[in-house]
Design brief:
Blueprint: H1 4-7, H2 23-38, H3 46-53, H4 57-68, H5 72-90, H6 95-99, H7 107-118, H8 122-129, H9 133-136, H10 141-147, H11 156-170
Helix pairs in contact: 2-3, 3-4, 5-8
């Protein structure tokens, strides 16, 4: 038997804020996270985010990771990939017109990072996404984005290294 709390549990790849932090610090971290969410295409250096939060850079980086489960850079990368995935799925915009406004400085970096994390190239994802648009229309967008959120528990370079060694061992 499931209880109401079981049904309302967050998906595994969505991290709830750590409420054990002092409320003032949590508000400051949320302010920085909200700024990143509002403008993921902008350059968000830890220095800038710490200034938004009103804490030191080291304290900000450590507290952000402890609170949200990801370092600020990976959190931002997740948001950029979510936005790019939604645009690939829901629009006919060319891939280059999706890459730059979602915060990527290079089409090559966008494609490589997208493939490394999502597991498909942007073109492949677009092709797969066009197969079942009517099924997605039945799911609220907030649930859809949470379910499709990239899992960045390890760094992209580490994931690339692991995937590369696995493919080399199998050859």
């Amino acid at each position: 038997m499931t209880t109401m709390t079981d049904e309302m549990a967050m998906p595994a790849n969505v991290v709830a804020p750590d409420t054990a932090k002092p409320p003032a610090l949590l508000r400051r971290l949320l302010r920085a996270r909200d700024r990143m969410d509002a403008a993921p295409h902008e350059t968000w250096l830890v220095r800038r985010l710490a200034r938004v939060s009103g804490v030191s850079q080291a304290h900000f980086a450590r507290s952000f990771k402890e609170t949200f489960g990801l370092p600020p850079h990976r959190y931002l990368l997740t948001r950029r990939l979510e936005r790019a995935t939604a645009l690939l799925r829901d629009t006919d915009m060319p891939i280059t017109e999706i890459a730059f406004p979602t915060g990527w400085n290079s089409l090559g970096t966008f494609g490589r990072t997208f493939r490394d994390i999502i597991g498909k190239t942007p073109s492949e994802l677009r092709t797969l996404g066009s197969d079942a648009p009517c099924q997605r229309a039945k799911v609220p967008s907030c649930i859809l984005s949470a379910a499709l959120r990239p899992d960045l528990t390890i760094a992209v370079s580490e994931k690339r290294r692991r995937d590369g060694s696995a493919s080399n061992n199998g050859a």
